[in-house]
Design goal:
heterodimer; A: mainly alpha; MetI-like fold; 2 domains; two-stranded antiparallel sheet; B: MetI-like fold; disordered N terminus
Chain lengths: 317, 289
């Protein structure tokens, strides 16, 4: 009895820094954000305003635009990222030698600080005719583009390339801008290596004799991939899609660095909108409200995604 | 057993053209992964004129770009700030996370499972959500505690010294250690704390390195929070310097690239040192979700 009391005390002593810091900066903020969102709150706390911030936020176009951009960003990034990393992981798995070399190389964009690589991509996708992106396009005979400085949508630009100059406004608002697509390309470049390493670990864990049995039964490569590889890889694929989904909704640092005046609000994801509220306008009440709305949306989407994809995940027996 | 004999007869790997396809694909991937780095290095050695013309490589290496970038915007000061901030965060995380992970993994106490669930739940809360209230909390602490929090190291490091992800990763690893170790330590008269310090921690080298690397990268990349809690160069990190570098009008590409190279170096050196443990740690963390 005395022994177990001592163990209890030691355990809580070991946990005390975690409980204090995580409680104060990880859990308490949720309750505090609710409190702040119900008050006028510039630098100091003001009057109680009830749900006024929420009503304003939902009526204001800025937040809705923020969500639209975030959804474009997530839907543009995730399928591309997973498709490419699946292909690379499969190729790496099939490679006889040099595995370690390629793995380190593919991982490089992920470990390199994003604040530095975002600066590099800002120059790659700059509007200057001599920027690397424009020079690459030139090789294939494309006109120079304004990339990160372009607020028009990629569909609008495509129409203009075919000399269609009069199109309705929604062609610009219903599709991502070229600036956002440039950021998506950057995001995919950063994370493909990370996904590849995880998928490669998943591929290597699949027992060889499954394939051998399938080969004896006369299965083609594609059939083995569809009926053995994909189901057994589904936990890793699920993990990656969940991580990248939450990641795109949290993305801030690199977008803030690659944001240009030319792109207007076409790259302003929700986290950027929230940051502007507190950093530029010093409106903590409004910012807390937007943050809570974002939190609820992420919760709903994550639970929904787990339900939808989770059922299809095969964990073996 | 029977399958094994058959297995030797079936070709396991692609041969001939298949192998060429595999290596072509891998080469294309490598090119895409490496090209931006090549551009960063080449452009960092160019003259301003060369960045505006269509040259591929600088005629002669302009090492002076690095000296100029270092002096500009007090880059050196910001760089040192980032190193101190990252080091404090790494030390705090390693210490506090391994303490918490050990208690959660190998000790019996009331409320353990509830506490672990709560810790995991905080992983779901994005930093954007906690940022605003945490800023207000830190501003309150700034006024009501004996030490200055704003424009000082506490605001930049203390909130990041505990990480749910690190605790989770270390706990998973510690649970996998054989229980005979603990039995042996107890016979020798060791308590939990001594067992943690002398036996468990040395065995946790790989996961500790993974956690340290993640914390370092996180600290190095952080931009929004430092902008909020600092307004003088005294404690501003390198991310702020880079952001100012690119957003100001008339910024010169070759200096930006030199700045990016400088900002990359500490992380790449760390990665080179612990590459093996780090990739192994990541693969393991992804397998079981």
């Amino acid at each position: 009895m005395k022994e177990s009391t001592k163990e209890q005390l030691t355990a809580w002593a070991l946990l005390s820094p975690t409980v204090v810091v995580l409680g104060l900066f990880g859990l308490f903020p949720i309750a505090y954000a609710v409190f702040v969102s119900l008050h006028a709150w510039r630098i100091k706390k003001g009057a109680f305003v009830g749900l006024e911030h929420y009503a304003n936020a939902l009526a204001d176009g800025q937040l809705l635009n923020g969500f639209k951009v975030t959804v474009f960003y997530a839907l543009g990034t995730i399928p591309l990222e997973i498709g490419l990393s699946l292909a690379l992981a499969y190729l790496l798995f099939k490679a006889l030698s040099g595995k370690g070399f390629f793995r380190v190389l593919y991982f490089l964009p992920y470990v390199t600080p994003m604040i530095a690589t975002a600066v590099v991509y800002r120059s790659i996708f700059s509007a200057h005719p001599a920027s690397p992106a424009n020079r690459l396009g030139e090789l294939f005979g494309y006109e120079p583009q304004r990339w990160l400085f372009e607020s028009r949508s990629i569909v609008a630009l495509l129409l203009e390339a075919f000399d269609v100059t009069s199109y309705p406004d929604w062609v610009n608002s219903a599709f991502p801008s070229l600036a956002l697509v440039s950021i998506i390309v950057y995001n995919v470049w950063v994370y493909v290596g990370y996904d590849t390493v995880i998928l490669l670990a998943g591929l290597s864990a699949i027992p060889k004799h499954y394939y051998e049995a399938a080969a004896i039964d006369g299965a083609t490569g594609l059939q083995s991939f569809r009926h053995i590889t994909l189901p057994l890889l589904s936990p890793a694929l699920f993990f990656i899609s969940l991580i990248s989904f939450i990641g795109t909704f949290k993305a801030f640092n690199h977008i803030y660095i690659m944001r240009t005046a030319g792109a207007r609000d076409t790259v302003d994801v929700v986290s950027v909108v929230i940051f502007d509220q507190v950093y530029q306008y010093h409106d903590a009440g409004n910012a807390a409200t937007l943050a809570l709305i974002l939190f609820v949306v992420i919760l709903i989407l994550t639970v929904g995604q787990s339900r939808l994809l989770g059922r299809r995940v095969f964990y073996g027996d | 057993m029977g399958t094994e004999t058959v297995a030797t007869a079936t070709p396991r790997r692609f041969a001939g053209t298949g192998r060429i396809v595999v290596y072509c694909g891998l080469a294309v991937g490598s090119l895409a992964a490496a090209a931006p780095f090549v551009w960063m290095l080449l452009a960092s050695f160019m003259t301003r004129g060369e960045t505006l013309r269509r040259v591929l490589a600088p005629e002669s290496l302009q090492w002076s770009n690095y000296a100029t970038a270092w002096r500009e915007e007090e880059f050196g000061l910001y760089f040192a700030n980032s190193l101190i901030i990252a080091a404090l965060q790494v030390l705090g995380t390693l210490l506090f996370s391994s303490m918490a992970a050990y208690a959660l993994a190998r000790m019996k106490f009331r409320g353990r499972d509830v506490l672990f669930t709560i810790i995991l739940a905080t992983l779901m809360i994005p930093e954007t959500v906690t940022m605003v209230p945490n800023f207000l909390t830190v501003a309150w602490l700034h006024q009501n505690s004996p030490i200055a929090w704003l424009n000082n190291w506490p605001a930049l490091t203390v909130p990041f010294m505990v990480s749910a992800f690190s605790i989770f990763l270390l706990r998973q690893f510690m649970r996998g250690l054989p229980s005979e170790l603990w039995d042996a330590a107890r016979i020798d008269g060791a308590g939990h704390v001594r067992f943690l310090l002398q036996i468990v921690l040395p065995l946790c080298r790989a996961p500790l390195m993974t956690v340290g690397m993640f914390t370092f990268i996180g600290a190095w990349n952080s931009l929004g929070w430092p902008l909020l809690v600092t307004n003088t160069p005294a404690w501003r990190p390198i991310s702020v310097a880079l952001q100012k570098f690119v957003s100001e009008a008339g910024a010169e590409v070759q200096l930006q690239m030199a700045g990016a190279v400088i900002a990359t170096l500490p992380v790449l050196v760390l990665y080179a040192l612990i590459q093996r443990e780090f990739t192994a740690g990541i693969s393991a963390s992804g397998l079981k979700g």
